Amino acid sequence: MTTAIALIPFWPLLGFLINILFGKRLRSASAYLAIGMLALSFLTSVAVFTRFVGDPASVLVPLFSWMSVGALNVEVNFLVDQLTVVMLLVVTGVGTLIHVYSVGYMHGDERYSRFFAYMNLFAAMMLVLVLADNYVVMFVGWECVGLCSYLLIGFWFERPFGSGTTNDAARKAFIVNRVGDFGFLLGVFLIWTAVGGVSFQQTSSAVESGYVTPGVATIATLLLFIGATGKSAQIPLYVWLPDAMAGPTPVSALIHAATMVTAGVYMVARSHFLFDIAPFSQNVVLWVGALTALFAASMGVQENDIKKILAYSTISQLGYMFMGVGAGAYAAGVFHLMTHAFFKALLFLGAGAVIHALHGEQDITRMGGLRNRMPLVHGTFLIGALALAGFPLTAGFFSKDSVLAGVYAHGDFAVWCIGVLTAGVTAFYTFRLYFLVFSGSSRDEKGRDLHAPASSMTSILLILAILSLVGGYVELPFHILAAFSAFLSPVVGMSSHEGIPELALMTVVFLFVLGGIGVSWAWYGRREQDATALAAEPANPFLRTLRRKWYVDEIYEVLLIRPIRWTSRTVLWRVIDEWIIHGFLVQFCGGYLWKAIGFVVSFSHTGRVGSYAFGIVVGVLVIISLIAR
Amino acid sequence: MIQTMHVLWLSTILFVIGTAGVLIRRNAIVMLMSVELMLNAVNLALIGFARQFRDVTGQVYVIFIMTVAAAEVAIGLALFVAVFRHKRTLDTQKIDLLRW
């Protein structure tokens, strides 16, 4: 068992090494190698899962000691408990499906094997992140998935994107994540200082014994949460995720929807023992999640790029997950993480099939009428859209409901209201996307001849559609079934839903969802749309603000990027580098000053042995006279 | 009876003569001889102390110094031959190629 666990991240790592070294020779076999390696990890994860069904005890797999410097001991160990198992299944399961889909999507790409190498590396590092038993090893995985994200966003680095190339988007993702990672690192330092160790076990027992004060826990959790806002795209560091859509669509599905961006939620759930004694941090997580959910959803309303709409919905759904874990309903947050992985991967891959069919068109104002021409994609996309909107009896409904019930039970009525409002907005923009892509008739001649998706792609859509439908039936409201939270309870405990009007809450949410879909139908689904009218800047100032994404990128440009650029150019470059370092230190001190001193001193070099010997004798006499004193 | 102090006085006198030779004389060979004189002055002091403390280490050290001095003389003389072939002199005042 322990060897099998240790090998879970090893298989995709092996796949990465083979593909990066010999990928060009393997040609199309590189994809099958990558899929096979990840499938092996998936089968191992299933085996580990079956072990946990009967036996709730967690497994610690000691691997090796990484470093031992003074009081700092970092062991590379893998910890497998119920939370890890859920993440393992999501990462390897959804990951394998997306790998299979990529065979068709990436077919004919000139860097085909490199794509699968990076995808395998990502899977390996994500598995390290979820398997880590301490914050330092988790940070290694955390950084490496960031690297893979960078490599894959800029995978088509020569292609234009926005006002630059995809490379700019990749750099933006990397730099914004650096800000968050700095907070994460400081949090780990603080935990180490306070606990004397970095493993989750040590930290939780230090919390239990009262060794960690609530004040320290509050600061540490806030620092960790800064890391989570970077990786999981929350306010204020969410700006990289919409741009991350520059990468190939399977990358968006795997990294920027299903797995990597949920690392922050996983980290908060994993650190629940710290958050539990820091109510202030919990409130911060709760409110940041709620505000991000609403804010991102509002930006999806006027977006016209099919992938960016899904990116904003991802940010918004991540906000829901943080609302769940912030309210102490960790199981609900992780539940939403899992169902979101299913339906958002489905939506992204469906969007990928649409983009593929329309020869790279991503603007929904120029789509339309695909319902009858791509029936299978249409059907599965509809299921994904219903799940995202939280329509009853889909997976998204149960998980979103469970999150909102947890928030209500926690006593945050205001946050609950924001969550309900967001659910309505989500339903609206999801179905705006659906209607503009699939109903009516084609608004562009690109839609005349479709590039039919490969059967490997459509079969993956079917599997994910089934998961989006049935994936929620592990946790049902009204105390019918609580299999998921019962499974996770050894790790994060049970949160009680006693004494809340569940049916009334659910009805309110349902009405908002129906309202959202209804308004969307009335505006976009009922009649034919005109492409130019859709693409035009809306006259309404509020809608125009939404179209411009609340001007956040512009505000960041003025408040942060320009001052930093100005400081770098004027102060650091012109003054410090050119004047002080180059001018004073290099040219004056290193140049003229030492040249002058050297010129004077060089006269002592007579070249005569006698004068040197005299110097030596005088020197020895001086030293002896000093010592003998 | 010869005291250690006598040995040290002899050693000191020889050392000063050697140092003066190195500083005053111009001929490289004479300077090398003076250096040898200084080395042997030190050897004498070492032997004197070895006798006083009844410790053989000082004497062993002397053997080493003599060995190294022999090697040093061989290299030094070889260098002088090479220098003489170039400059036709061994006057150190005239050999000043290493000047700035």
Which descriptors would you attach to this protein?
heterodimer; A: 629 residues; mainly alpha; 4 domains; two-stranded antiparallel sheet; two-stranded antiparallel ribbon; 26 helices; 6 strands; 4% strand; globular; B: 100 residues; Helix Hairpins; 0% strand
In short:
The complex is a heterodimer of chains A (about 625) and B (about 100). Helix content of chain A is about 70%, strand content about 5%.
**Main β sheet profile of chain B:** none
Helix content of chain B: over 70%
**Can you tell me the number of structural domains of chain B?**
1
Integer-rounded radius of gyration of chain B? 17 Å
CATH topology name of chain B = Helix Hairpins
Instruction: State the end-to-end distance of chain B.
Output: 55 Å
Low-confidence stretches of chain B: none
Task: Give the topology.
The complex is a heterodimer of chains A (629) and B (100).
Chain A: H1 2-7, H2 10-26, H3 29-54, E1 59-69, E2 72-80, H4 82-105, H5 112-131, H6 135-153, E3 160-161, E4 164-165, H7 166-195, H8 200-208, H9 214-231, H10 240-243, H11 249-258, H12 263-270, H13 272-276, H14 279-300, H15 306-326, H16 330-357, H17 375-389, H18 395-409, H19 413-438, H20 455-470, E5 475-476, E6 481-482, H21 483-492, H22 502-525, H23 531-535, H24 541-547, H25 552-601, H26 609-628
Chain B: H1 4-24, H2 28-53, H3 57-87
Account of the 3D structure:
The complex is a heterodimer of chains A (629) and B (100). Chain A has 629 residues and is mainly α. Chain A folds into four domains: 1-67 and 76-133; 158-277, no CATH class; 282-534, no CATH class; 554-628, no CATH class. Chain A contains 26 helices and six strands. Chain A has helices at 2-7, 10-26, 29-54, 82-105, 112-131, 135-153, 166-195, 200-208, 214-231, 240-243, 249-258, 263-270, 272-276, 279-300, 306-326, 330-357, 375-389, 395-409, 413-438, 455-470, 483-492, 502-525, 531-535, 541-547, 552-601, 609-628; strands at 59-69, 72-80, 160-161, 164-165, 475-476, 481-482. In chain A, helix 9 runs parallel beside helix 14 (279-300), helix 11 packs antiparallel against helix 16 (330-357) and helix 15 (306-326) packs antiparallel against helix 19 (413-438). The mean pLDDT of chain A is 91. With 100 residues, chain B is mainly alpha-helical. Chain B contains three helices and no strands. Chain B is elongated. The N and C termini of chain B lie far apart (55 Å). The model of chain B has no long low-confidence stretch (mean pLDDT 91). Chain A binds chain B through residues 602-603, 605-610, 613-614, 617, and chain B through 19, 22-23, 26, 28, 31, 92-93, 95-100.
